[in-house]
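Suppose you are handed a protein chain with no further information: no name, no annotation, nothing but its sequence. What can you learn? This example shows the usual starting point.
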Amino acid sequence: AGPGYASEGARAAGIGAFALAIAGLVGPRLRRALPPLLSLAVLVDCAFGDTHPFGWAVKQLSPFSLSAPARALDVALVFLAVLAALGVDAVAGRLARRARALRTVLVAAATIAMLLAVHGWLSAGNFLEVGPDAQLFPAALLVVVAIAALRGRSRALRLALVALLFLETFAWNRHFVPWLLRNNAPTDVAYPR
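A reasonable first move is to predict its three-dimensional structure. Written in structure tokens, the prediction is:
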């Protein structure tokens, strides 16, 4: 995203954050998850510019300019983080057996689909060099979610989920950050033509 230079595209979230956000939507705290979910949806829509409904509304109804609509993702990631935090609480909290099973199946299906997509993406060689740990950490997170479904409530599981999120973020960004610091990001690698 962005107006053609890589520093505008240096915002993203890993598979683990999305998986935990999905976990946060299954369970008794769905009412708490709806405001950040709706905010996330509106901001992602705005990030696509004025060709989408909310982006069009911002352009028409407000004094704000959408000169770089992808910047809406900066704020959207805050709401994704809130959903992921609700997911950590949901995974490591109390939940009926059937709901835990449903949550685990949904998170597993989504995580596996995202891992397959990212694997295909990375193996095509069109993106920044990322090690296999960018795929291993979300897979490990999925294992922790499965263990939580069997064990139930645990502080250690919460800590493990948070640690895996940080490790995945590090795995994705360790190659990209030095390029940004040198202020000459390789746009031909980040944005293949």
